[in-house]
Design goal:
heterodimer; A: mainly alpha; about 70% helix; flat; B: mainly alpha; MetI-like fold; 2 domains
């Protein structure tokens, strides 16, 4: 009896090895993707050490001298720290607060359309802007909102002939609103898809029973449709709050000009500017700023993921 | 659905219902209008006369229709180069994406593969943490891919999110019995993939191909940081240079004389460019819409 554990372990191991050998073709399939992910995702992760070094192009990442936390301290004490962090959080929280309730409300509204053809046409229209590229979207914004030649100016002059409207593109304040509402224009329709899918799963009999009991459509929305959305909605809310420190580079950068930079400089655009766009690129400093952002994003996502797992009894985590 | 609408008719709508429908339909109608109006305006402006555009006389339909804008766009040197390059990046990039994604999703969908969990973690972890912009840039420099097409094709060879969509599809849409039956008949793992799994997975391949293709068509950031050579620049980068520029130099056109003296042409060029660059995707859109929606649905099953 005392000797059995060892052979058993050996047994298990050889069984596993046999299984691995049997499935060798599957590992062959994985070879290219694994090489890809190691080179393009994990190797750069090792490269984050540059944030703790004084990078010198000649010596490379590995050969440069350690600098400790100098670059982090420099970022935290510069005025860019509060500016970029505040702008990042302002943009994403504002967007979340508008986008989240609106996409639920629009999904509920689209869902009550009885005529199938009308519903389909409407959905087709609402999804279109999602496929427009960021460059084109910003180009459209600039053309349309041009106070002299744009649609905005044309319509303004219908009411106030001979005058030009205020130039909202070259002011700092409207930037935040333009950023958020152009995002709503582009993505609101698309964001309803998940909710409409959830609504299509609601019980028809529940609706029938409620109708026989004399419930109005609004009452049925409040008591049947809306509760059916809650599981999906809570998970989407949690996941979105996990990316609050994560404002994409492209749109903010393209909409940026020297005047609105006070409100439009987010962490990702700042990293690009100090790291890659200038004549003197501060690689180490930019990497430190980026690392700070990535770490916060990672932590937020971990928290949010465990929250969503807890709320859904383990079925709705990302990993 | 038909049953529901039957009952809908049977039960008389109370007054409140009619009010609700009136409110909802008008809100949705207004929102659809908000989406369509800017798009229609851009298209109309692109076909209008330059002077009329500059004087702000276009509201809904083209005024004094011309094709000047389009003529100018297609005689712009960089635009044609951009189109050619983007077409190449989209085709080559999507092909690479699909191959790598399928190679990765298939083994990870096999529950009988040892260490499956470990490999899954290896990929999913990269969705949550990355080295960031600077280390990635230095890697591409180190690999000597700056200013080559590879910088736009290889670093994004696979999106883990799309891989998970594909894996979920394999898991949930292809019955395990097929695998078991083919294994009894002595089918190898590779043969099962090529002869059985792939023919059953056209739908998901179409979905991820479209996700990737639209991504490539609209991509701009990688080119901004990796590509300096104007002959390799994709359309979006050239678009950005023209759309966000305040003045367009006449020398950029093949025949500057043709463009000379046409008032408001620079506005027309911008409008026409917006239309021309978005047209391929918008034109395909009605056909591919259902695939996209399907993709979002599959994606929402997990995450």
């Amino acid at each position: 009896m005392t000797n059995t554990p060892l052979p058993q372990l050996d047994d298990q191991r050889s069984k596993l090895m046999k299984q691995v050998r049997q499935r060798w073709q599957l590992y062959l399939f994985l070879l290219i993707p694994v090489i890809y992910i190691l080179v393009f995702a994990y190797y750069p992760m090792l490269g984050v050490q540059i944030a703790f070094k004084n990078f010198q192009p000649r010596k490379g990442i590995w050969g440069s001298e350690w600098a400790g936390l100098v670059h982090f301290k420099a970022f935290f004490s510069s005025f860019y720290f509060s500016r970029t962090v505040t702008n990042t959080i302002r943009l994403s929280v504002y967007y979340l607060l508008v986008n989240f309730p609106l996409s639920i409300i629009f999904a509920l509204m689209i869902n009550i359309i009885v005529n199938k053809k009308l519903k389909h046409t409407l959905q087709t229209i609402l999804y279109i802007p999602h496929f427009i590229s960021t460059v084109v979207l910003v180009g459209m914004l600039m053309q349309i909102l041009n106070p002299v030649t744009g649609l905005y100016g044309n319509i303004y002059r219908l009411f106030v002939p001979g005058e030009y409207p205020p130039d909202i593109l070259s002011k700092a304040q409207p930037f935040t609103h333009l950023y958020v509402w152009s995002g709503i224009w582009q993505n609101l329709g698309w964001n309803t898809i998940v909710y409409i899918a959830a609504l299509s799963g609601t019980d028809v009999e529940l609706h029938e029973a409620a109708q026989i009991d004399g419930a109005t459509r609004l009452q049925r929305i409040i008591h049947i449709d809306f509760p059916a959305l809650l599981p999906t909605a809570s998970i989407i809310l949690i996941l979105n709050s996990g990316s609050i420190m994560n404002v994409g580079f492209e749109k903010a950068y393209l909409m940026q000009n020297s005047i609105n930079v006070v409100n439009s400089e987010v962490i990702s655009t700042y990293v690009y500017k100090v790291g890659l766009s200038g004549a003197t690129n501060q690689f180490s400093y930019a990497a430190a700023v980026g690392l700070f952002n990535n770490v916060i994003n990672g932590i937020l996502l971990l928290i949010v993921n465990s929250l969503s797992k807890k709320l859904s009894d383990g079925t709705r985590g990302l990993f | 659905m038909s049953e529901a609408s039957y009952i809908q008719q049977k039960i008389t709508n109370p007054k409140e219902d009619k009010l609700l429908y009136a409110v909802v339909y008008s809100i949705l109608f207004l929102f659809a209008l908000c989406i369509l109006y800017p798009i229609i305006f851009i298209i109309s402006a692109s076909f209008s006369d330059g002077t009329e555009v500059q004087l702000g006389r276009v509201y809904l339909l083209p005024v004094k229709p011309t094709l000047d804008g389009y003529q100018a766009v297609f005689s712009h040197k960089n635009v044609l180069i951009g189109f050619r390059n983007t077409l190449f990046y989209t085709l080559a990039g999507t092909a690479i994406n699909i191959i790598v994604t399928l190679l990765c999703a298939y083994p990870l969908s096999r529950k009988d593969m040892p260490f499956r969990g470990f490999f899954m973690f290896l990929f999913v972890f990269t969705m949550f943490f990355s080295g960031g912009l600077i280390p990635s840039y230095l890697l591409v420099t180190q690999l000597r891919m700056i200013n080559t097409v590879w910088a736009l094709l290889l670093p994004g060879a696979m999106s883990v999110y799309n891989m998970i969509i594909t894996r979920t599809f394999f898991d949930s849409n292809v019955p395990v019995e097929l695998l078991e039956a083919s294994q009894i008949d002595g089918c190898s793992d590779a043969r099962y993939f090529f002869s059985i799994l792939l023919p059953l997975s056209h739908a998901v391949v179409a979905v991820i191909a479209l996700f990737y293709a639209v991504g490539h068509w609209n991509a701009y950031f990688s080119a901004l940081i990796y590509i300096r050579d104007p002959n390799l620049q994709p359309l979006q980068l050239i678009l950005r240079n023209i759309l966000l520029a305040t003045r367009i130099s006449l020398n950029e056109f093949e025949d500057p004389d043709l463009m000379e003296g046409k008032i408001g042409l620079e506005y027309l060029v911008k409008y026409a460019l917006i239309v021309v660059s978005s047209a391929p995707i918008i034109a395909l859109y009605p056909f591919i819409q259902k695939f996209f929606v399907k993709g979002v649905m599959i994606g929402s099953i997990k995450g």
